[in-house]
Amino acid sequence: MRDPRGLWLRRTIRFRVTIVTTVVTLAVLLGLAAVTSKMIGPLLISSADAELSTSLSAAKARVERGEPAPPSPNLQVRVLDTGGTPVDGGPPVHLEPADIRVLKAGTPVLRGSDTPPARWLGTVATAPDGSQRLVVAGTGIVGYEAAHHRALKWLLIAALIVAAAVAATTWIAVRTSLRPVERMRSAAGRLGAGRRLPIPAAHDELRSLAGALNALLARRDEAADRLRRFTGDAAHELRSPVASIRVQAEVAVTHPDPDLSQEVLSDVVREAERLSSLVDGLLTLARSDAGEVPPAEPVDLALAAADATTRCRGDGPAIQLHVPPTPCWVLAAPSEVDLVLDNLLRNALRHARAQVTVTVLVASKAIRLVVDDDGRGIPEEHRTRVFDRFYRIQDDRARSSGGTGLGLALVAEVVRRRGGAVRVSESPEGGARFQVSWRVAR
Question: Which Gene3D superfamilies does the annotation name (predicted)?
Fold first, then answer.
């Protein structure tokens, strides 16, 4: 059995909008037709009551003065006793005892069994001799049933005609409104690299949609361009250590000298470490680009900074650590904090002359990590790009010092995805100052 919802969703928007609009319009019009046809009878009765009330009031006044009821060519005005017997000398009145009781109470009576249906009003009047008289006025409502049925018939026909007109109008209106969408779809199918959808002249939802799609295309092109650059840079960076390892191995094979082989092996190990570090950085960036973020938890930045300085201490520049005596909890993953500290410290040690200073500062909403070195610093024109992937200020020096061009890019990526910020400026010690702001873990 076919799914009705699936059949409905496979229809075009034009068809669905037209059907819904037509069905709702028809339902409303049919309801109005039923209600309006039922109001025809009360309108006829109300008109008859207005005329009967005027004649009844005049007849009551005459009876109370002892005069006969005035004749009326279109109405029956009769004077009865309280039992319903005529006292005006006229023929019997076609009223049941129950009708007489209702009329004496001042309530109108509609006799639907008469042909045509008759409407009666009554009131009690006191004659000059003190006797009670029932004055009644009645008339036949000609066309009562016919008006009701014909009104319903024509209202139903009108409802069908209006519903058909609404269906045709909705179909044309939706079709016209969707033409820009069709043009946009055709234009999207012909779009090449770097091209954008045409923006409609009308300031409507389609213009907003076209703007949003163009923004999406711009982000797609930017991501594709960034991926091409990243792939090219990665291939270039991987080629260098691989080529170096191959050359060193060929030298060792060509000149099987034990002393030379030991030196070659040392160079191979150094290049292999550089290659491993580069691959790890590339994998970390790839996971970040794919949205793989480890769960965040409170991490004591002061303790992590102390551990990092212990790991990075060696024969090079001295490291000074300034941290508060109390824990400094930041919201991140422990591996991310270690990655930031290790890369910033290694970068500072690589370029420092004699000293590197690590400081942790606590504020109300953020905790700052500050790493200073006394090296040559980073020129101002390079500070905006120093966190780009594979960007080096001095390529040869960076290669000789073992840098991969990914350390600072990893720092920026890790801090950014946790809602923090990283920037570089001039250190009071003359070198570079890197500042990382982490959100405080509540």
Answer: 1.10.287.130, 6.10.340.10, Histidine kinase-like ATPase, C-terminal domain
Q: What is the pLDDT of residue 140?
A: 82
Structure tokens at 442: 């509540």
SS (H, E, C) the chain: CCCHHHHHHCCCHHHHHHHHHHHHHHHHHHHHHHHHHHHHHHHHHHHHHHHHHHHHHHHHHHHHCCCCCCCCCCCEEEEEECCCCECCCCCCCCCCHHHHHHHHCCCCEEECCCCCCEEEEEEEEECCCCCEEEEEEEEECCCHHHHHHHHHHHHHHHHHHHHHHHHHHHHHHHHHHHHHHHHHHHHHHCCCCCCCCCCCCCCCHHHHHHHHHHHHHHHHHHHHHHHHHHHHHHHHHHHHHHHHHHHHHHHHHHCCCHHHHHHHHHHHHHHHHHHHHHHHHHHHHHHHHCCCCCCCEEEEHHHHHHHHHHHHCCCCCEEEEECCCCCCEEEECHHHHHHHHHHHHHHHHHHCCCEEEEEEEECCCEEEEEEEECCCCCCHHHCCCCCCCCCCCCHHHHHHCCCCCCHHHHHHHHHHHCCCEEEEEECCCCCEEEEEEEEECC
CA max distance for the chain: 157
Asked if residue 38 lies in contact with residue 183, where contact means CB atoms within 8 angstroms, the answer is: no
Q: State the Rg of the chain over Cα.
A: 49
Cis peptide before 117 (omega within 30 of 0): no
Q: Which of 138, 122, 129, 135 is nearest to 81 (CA)?
A: 135
Structure tokens at 247: 């050359």
Burial label for 382, CB within 10 Å (0-12, 13-18, 19+), is middle
pLDDT at 369 (0 to 100): 94
Cα separation, 238 vs 242, in Å, equals 6
Block means of pLDDT (10 residues each) for the chain, 442 residues, are: 67 84 90 79 79 86 84 81 85 87 88 82 88 88 70 84 91 84 78 76 78 83 72 63 74 71 72 69 66 81 92 84 91 87 88 92 90 90 81 51 67 86 90 92 78
Using CA atoms, how far apart are residues 171 and 173, in angstroms rounded to an integer?
6
- Direct distance between the N- and C-terminal alpha carbons of the chain, in angstroms, rounded to an integer: 56
Q: How far apart are CA 72 and CA 93, in angstroms?
A: 16
pLDDT of residue 437: 93
What is the phi/psi pair of residue 320, to 5°?
-105, 135
C-beta of residue 285 within 8 angstroms of C-beta of residue 409 = yes
Q: Which residues, 6+ apart, have CB-to-CB distance to 31 below 8 Å?
A: none
Q: Which two tokens stand for residue 89?
A: 């000398």
